[in-house]
Amino acid sequence: METSFLSGLALWLRGEIYGVTGIPVLSDLALDVIGIALLLGIISMAAIVFTYAERKVCAFMQVRLGPNRVGGRFGLLQPVADMLKLMSKEDIMPEGADKVLWALSPALLFVPAALVYAFFPFDAGAVLADVNVGVFLLFAISGQAVLPFLMGGYASNNKYSMVGGFRVVSQMISYEAPLLFSLLGILMLTGSMRLEDIVEAQAGGLWFVFLQPLAFVIFLISAVAETNRTPFDLVEGESEIIAGPFTEYSGMRWALFFLAEYANLLTAAILATTFFLGGYLGPDFLPGFAWFFLKAVLMVFLIMWFRWTFPRTRVDQILSFGWKAMLPLSILNVFLTGVVMCALGLV
Amino acid sequence: MKAAAPAKRTETYLLNMGPQHPSTHGVLQVKLTLDGERILKAEPVLGYLHRGIEKLMESRTYVQCLPYTDRLDYISSMNNNFGFAMAVEELANIEVPRRAEFIRVIMAELNRINSHLIGIGTLANDLGASTGMLYCFRDREYILDIFNEVCGARQTFHYIRIGGVSGDFTDKARSLTEAFLERVPKFLAEYDQLLTGNEIFTRRIVGISPMTAQEALDLNMTGPNLRATGVARDLRKLDGYSVYGELDFAIPVGEHGDNWDRYQVKLKEIAESAKIIRQCLDKLPEGDIMAKVPKVLKPPKGEVYSRSEGTRGELGFYIVSDGTTKPYRVHIRRPSFVNMQGLDLMCRGMLIGDSVSAYSSIDPIMGEVDC
Amino acid sequence: MELKDRVPESLRNNVLIVKVDELFRWAHANSIWPLSSGLACCAIEMMSTATARFDLSRFGYEVFRPCPRQADLLIVAGTLTYKMADPIVRLYEEMPEPKYVIAMGSCAIVGGPFADSYSVVEGIDEVLPVDVYIPGCPPRPEALIDGMLKLREKIMHPERVAEERAKWAERKKEREAKQA
Amino acid sequence: MKQRYLTAEELARIKGEFYTVSIDEEERPPIYVSPEEFLPLMKMLKNDHTLSFTHLSCLTAVDWKDTIDVVYYLFSELLGAYVVVKVKTIRNHPEIPSVTSVFPGAEFEEREVYDLMGVRFTGHPDMRRILMPEGFKGHPLRKDFTYKKPAPPKATRVGEIEKEADL
Fold first, then answer.
1. 3-state DSSP call for residue B45?
2. Distance from CA of C9 to the nearest CA of B (A)
3. How far does A249 lie from chain C, in Å, by closest CA?
4. Residue B28, pLDDT score
5. CB C41 to CB B21 under 8 A?
6. Are C68 and C128 a contacting pair, CB within 8 Å?
7. Would you list which residues of chain C are within 8 Å, Cβ to Cβ, of chain B?
8. CB-nearest partner of B51 from C43, C88, C114
9. How far is B15 from chain A (nearest CA, A)?
10. Whole-angstrom Cα distance, residue B210 to residue A106?
11. Which residue of chain D is at minimal alpha-carbon distance from B47?
12. What residues of chain B lie within 8 A of the CB of D77, using their CB?
């Protein structure tokens, strides 16, 4: 494995800690803790940066200026103020709520959203949990995100929340299938489920977005649907069902939903980067992780662009589109990939 | 698209939308009876903004009544002023100077564009495209600039008075209007790009909440909601009141009476209104802007029903005079109020997501509905 | 409720606690999310305030939340009728503390031109505790922005409000002394 | 602008068919009809091929202190003219047949007249108040309506010092 800046840093740290403690297990453990802390840092930073970015991008699309008073000319402290405010708001629990489920929901939503970050190769060798069935595990974990929405929607004892909960289940389950099928072609091409192998397979500039353009489009649409963003933001369709499952949540609990939403957004962008855009690969003048984040941020911008341009689809449209268009197309993509691979004698 | 009745027996439930709901345009409350997401019945509950304007007018003089009309349908105040002023003029036999008539038509048509822009913007916003709304509001500001120039207000103008208009149509207002007219085709093209040409937007409104011409006529509906069903009834043409008889314009009609047609009719009416304004600017004569109206206005005994084409349909003022300075009874036929009867028909068999587009395509203004 | 009021007496004037309070006050003042609820005419001006020309988002106040649970500010934009009074009280009570109310427009302040009507509440301060009054019929968007900045000042510097109140009380006493 | 109303001949024809009809000679001649003959008259005005008053323009009521008149303005695109139909009702117990069977679109306006003026429409599918809250006493548009505003509900602010009451 070639070394990169991040993995080199990790190696050096491991050596230092080993030098101090002298126990190999402890140094591994310490490194894991540092890694987890870093990832959580990235997630919460992502939420802060993306709320700011979203407001600026939105303002840009809507011929406005966006925040520019709080914290200097560019309003850089705006998300900090929002965060602090949400932390100190009153915590209201509705009277008729199912208290345990209600309180668990935001936390449970955040866990899978954060857990999947363990599998991402931010740079060559810089993976927290380097497992050889990475893709499989990743989707197994992120699939759990459906339940907390339903829990929150059910437990709130509010009809809007309930409708939102129903919507989220039908929508996320429908789009899980095309999402996975769209990646099958890539797995066939690389022959590995390890994410780093997938990235390495794209070395030499032949990114999978060029080999699998159809899969990329399907993946992008499904990923937007999975993250519940416009045009598929039926879950919290503001003008229809107020805030969907989150209608009754206030203050920090709601902020956790918010955090999970932006963590999922970054996840979607990172997945697109890893699978289709060559991950951390790029010309040498920038380190690998810089390329990685650059591509991810570009993807995030693209998804935000969708949000501020498209209207919202309707619930029956989104489902029929998922099952009748996305799924057959993604299976066709798998089939075509197989045929081409056979013809080229790659199997 | 109406689905067949579900084979399994399911329980219906009641969803209460409003009076505070982001897409009910103010304080409309709608009780939706739902089967899953499908609407079985929609019952509008009105009155959350009932301010008793009709009663208040009975204790005001005719001149004092006029500002209340501003606050009826608060995004087409000019048209309301126009309607009330016409009613009182008919009652008191006041002849309005020609220049004032033209200025009135210019203002009423500008306000129609303004109101339709808000209608389109809120439709876009309710469908989730908030950028569309922001664009509509951006273009609306240029109309408000003109109003600001002629009367100094942005919303409740009180500009069209009994007997004429309160201030002259200045050269600056004229140049602003001309600049705005040049913008009209540009922003219409922009909406075509952003909304009309958008596949998702199209699919959300084509074929949704359809209504036949007969149904609309039975429900007494008027205005763009009626014209979308294919009935070319426009009081500006039919009655030819004020100077509309001398102007050349078309009545855009729809075909299926669905949300798409209502949206298209509004877009086309913007273009037609721009045409009317252009003609009025060309024909605008010199002269007085105010007729000789007695300081104390005492119309003769009698009653009058005078109607005009408001932005939402037939806006009628029924005034009974007992010969004193105050009207004995004023009744306002509010188009939004009558059009609200169509809501149940429009929502039936649709999904929750369609109900919001039905609200915004019917385009009620609660100040007018509740009066 | 500030931290200062929760800690023991001896810690009240501790520099750290005062600073933490100040920080949270700053956060509250700079991140006021209004509830997107309009009653009447003024609601249109409220919407205009958020749009391109006036751009409320410059101050970070453009996040109009549809749900009272996540909102900080109730802008009562329009005429309040008796029928609407119950829902508006409920909306207010659904909002989490700290929460603020702006009375926008003359209808919300005293009932405006409809004050003598049978169905209109004469001023929302009969119903809700109001923080800032914005006169006008309807107020221009600039006035709403100014009102929100006034609210910001009020949150950031509660002591100024107290000073102002003390001055008013003094003046009132003087007036009464003169009359007597 | 002046609208056309029905001419004397046209009115005379209507008068020939309904014996309770009386017509005032005014600029806008109103047809007064008794509640019994009201519905047949409206049906005839709407369905007669030479009249075809298909559009119910305005429906309201006027309180004349001794009686309450319910006023209908019908418009015919065929003739380009209005007809004014009025029904006098007893003030203490105003009740007339509902016109919703002829003009379904009159539903809300009849409810409004009931709400604000207190005229009951028999045969109306849903005779409830529409603008005023349920349980409201009285009918505001009547001339003798007096009303004392009740105290509105009050929300209190928790956790903050109450404002000094004297300011």
1. strand
2. 43
3. 6
4. 85
5. no
6. no
7. 35-41, 43-45, 47-48, 51-53, 66, 68, 78-79, 81, 83-84, 87-88, 91, 113-114, 116-120, 137-138, 140
8. C114
9. 7
10. 41
11. D131
12. 233, 238
Picking from B131, B138, B353, the nearest residue to A240 by CB comes out as B353
Q: Tell me the angle at which helices A288-307 and A251-276 cross, rounded to the nearest 10 degrees.
A: 120
Write the burial class of residue C37 (CB in 10 Å: 0-12 exposed, 13-18 middle, 19+ buried): buried
Q: Which fold has domain C31-179?
A: Rossmann fold (3.40.50)
* Per-residue model confidence (pLDDT) at position B180: 92
Q: pLDDT confidence of D104, banded at 50, 70, 90?
A: confident
* B218 and B314 Cβ atoms separated by less than 8 Å: no
- Domain ranges, ordered by start, for chain C: 1-30, 31-179
Q: Which residue in the block uniquely carries the two structure tokens 């009951």? A: D120
CA triplet D112, D115, D116: central angle to 5 degrees? 85
Q: How many folded domains does chain B comprise? A: 1
Give the three-class secondary structure for B201.
helix
Average pLDDT over residues A266-291: 83
Residues 6+ apart with CB under 8 A from D1: B86, B90, B239, B240, B241, B242
Q: Give the domain extent around B190.
A: 61-297+352-370
CATH number for the domain harbouring residue B95: 1.10.645.10
Q: Residue D163: is its pLDDT beyond 60?
A: no
Instruction: Look at residue A176 and tell me if it is in a domain.
Output: yes
Q: What is the mean pLDDT of chain A?
A: 83
Please indicate, yes or no, if residue A24 is contained in any of the structural domains. Answer: no
B121-149 mean pLDDT: 88
Q: Are the Cβ atoms of B194 and A309 closer than 8 angstroms?
A: yes
pLDDT digit string (tens) for C104-142? 989 889 888 888 888 888 888 888 888 899 998 889 999
Assess if residue B17 is contained within a domain.
no
Residues of chain B positioned with their CB less than 8 A from the CB of D60? 318, 331, 333
Provide the pLDDT for residue B4.
55
Tokens of A101: 């489920």
Q: What is the mean pLDDT of residues C64-72?
A: 86
Nearest to C44 among B49, B133, B155 (CB): B155
A83 within a domain of the structure (yes/no):
no
Fold of the domain spanning D4-122: Beta Polymerase; domain 2 (3.30.460)
Mean pLDDT of chain C: 86
Chain B: partners with 3+ C-beta pairs within 8 Å: A, C, D
For residue D163, the chain C residues in CB contact (below 8 A) are 129
Which residues in chain A touch residue C51, judged by CB atoms under 8 angstroms apart? 62, 64
Q: Give the residue numbers spanning the domain of A201.
A: 99-343
Instruction: State ipTM.
Output: 0.86
Say yes or no for a CB contact (<8 Å) between A237 and B353: yes
Helix axes of A327-343 and A213-226: crossing angle, nearest 10 degrees: 150
Q: Does residue B35 sit within a domain?
A: no
Domain assignment present for residue A27? The answer is no
Nearest chain C residue to D134, by CA: C83
Q: Does pTM top 0.90 for this prediction? A: no
Q: Per the domain annotation, does B321 fall within a domain?
A: no
Amino acid at A18: Y
Q: pLDDT for D20-65, tens place per residue?
A: 777 777 777 888 888 888 888 888 888 888 888 888 888 999 988 8
Confidence (pLDDT) at A5: 73
- For chain D, which chains pass the contact test of at least 3 CB pairs under 8 Å? B, C
User: With an 8 Å Cβ cutoff, are A159 and B13 in contact?
Assistant: yes
> What sign results for the dihedral spanned by CA atoms C110, C112, C116, C120?
negative
Q: Is the pLDDT of residue B365 over 60?
A: yes
Closest-CA distance of chain A to residue B36, Å: 8
Label residues A138-177 b or e (16+ Cβ within 10 Å = b).
bbebbbebbbbbbbbbbbbebbbbbbbbbbbbbbbebbbb
Q: Is B110 on the interface with A (CB under 8 A)?
A: no
